[in-house]
Structure formats: C-alpha cells, structure tokens
Amino acid sequence: MLLGSALMTLVSLPYFDFEELPPFVIEKLPLRFEELWLASLRIHVASALVAFPMCLVLMTRWLQRRAAWHRWLGRIAGVLLIGVMVPSGVILAFDAKGGAVVTTGFLLSALIVGWFSIHGVLAARRRELTAHARAMRHVVGQMSVAVTSRAMIVGLDAAGMDPDVAYVVALWVPVLFTALIAELVSVRPRLLSSGFSPLYERISP
C-alpha cells in the first residue's frame, strides 16, 4: 500500500498544475460550480496523499510502541481526515463519473471514513484500544480503495469489460470488500476478549 500511495502521488501531480488542466478534469467540464470543484479536488487529493501513508505508518507496531509519536501523528491524521479529506470528497462525489450509482459508492466510502475516524478518535481518548484499532482498520481499508480500485480498472480494461461497467465494479467491490475484511479481522480479538475461543482452540492440547 505504501508503494501504491507513492504511485498515486506521481499520478496526481498534474492536478496541481494551475496552468493546464489534466484530461480527467477536462472531460468533466462544464461543471456548475467549477471553481469549487477544482479547489475540492486539489484539497482532497493533497490531504489524501498525506493522510494515507501517515495512517499506514500509524498501523505499524513500531510506531504503536511509541505512544507520544503515535498520539501526535494520529491527531494530525484525524484533522486531515475529518476536517479536510472527507468534506472535500463529499463535494466531489456529486459530480462523479458514472452517475448516481458511483456517487452513492463514494458517499458510502466517505461515510465509513468519517464515522470510524470520529469513533476511533473518541475510543483512543477513552483508552479503548481494541475499539480504536477496529475503527482505524475501517479507515485505512477505505483509503486503500483509491489504490485497489485503480488496479481493478486496469485489470478489467485488459479483460475487455465495458469501461462504464468496470468503473462501477472497481468502486463498489473494493468499498464493500475492505469493509467486510476490516470487520472480520476485528471479530477474533473481540471474541477472545469476551472469553470465547474457536472450537479448534478449545479442543487442541
């Protein structure tokens, strides 16, 4: 994911060329609120390019063992996510390629990121580390959709799928799949903390 984040940074550099618009933007014109949309695009991309690798680093055991660093980087990431990335992403979602189906997918992903970012911050302040970890898995999972979705688009295009269909599939599958995986990964710690152990563990010597 760190490599994917680096590639996303390289691909996104044309968005910050104020002299010439990239093809992705030109094909969307005309927009009703063009200046707002362009500003939201640049703000969203810039905040995501900083917050995503920061969240990946925050997930490492090395940084988790350094509570002070983890706390301060987490606060910065939280501000970027809740105050910048999610609101700008919501604005962009209403002019997403693919119409209402894609808009709904982007809004769902933004809702998951926003909800679990707030939930994770509150859990950390209460020292509920298990709940904090679960929330952050959902946040990182949804942020990873930017990487996995583009990889799927390339793969589906190579397979000959209709581009419009591929765009919808490449959005919804990663959004739902990562939400499912984040929840499943969090099930085991909750079961163990409640005193339940899987059958194979209870019967093993």
The major beta sheet can be summarized as: none
The count of DSSP E runs of length 2 or more, i.e. the number of strands, is 0
Shape: globular
N-to-C SSE series? Answer: HHHHHHHHHH
Going by helix content, strand content and strand pairing, the class is mainly alpha
Beta-strand fraction estimate:
under 5%
Query: What is the number of domains?
Result: 1
- Residue-averaged pLDDT: 86
Helix content: over 70%
Low-confidence stretches: 196-205
Please give the count of helices.
10
Cα Rg: 19 Å
CA-CA gap between termini:
38 Å
Short description:
The protein has 205 residues and is mainly α. It has ten helices and no strands.
What does this entry look like structurally?
The protein is mainly α. The protein has one domain. Helix content is 79%, strand content 0%. The protein has helices at 2-12, 23-26, 34-58, 61-64, 67-93, 100-125, 129-143, 145-158, 163-193, 199-203. Helix 5 packs antiparallel against helix 6 and helix 6 (100-125) packs parallel to helix 9. It starts with a helix and ends with a helix. Residues 196-205 have low confidence and may be disordered.
SSE blueprint and pairings:
Elements: H1 2-12, H2 23-26, H3 34-58, H4 61-64, H5 67-93, H6 100-125, H7 129-143, H8 145-158, H9 163-193, H10 199-203
Feature tags:
205 residues, 79% helix, globular, disordered C terminus
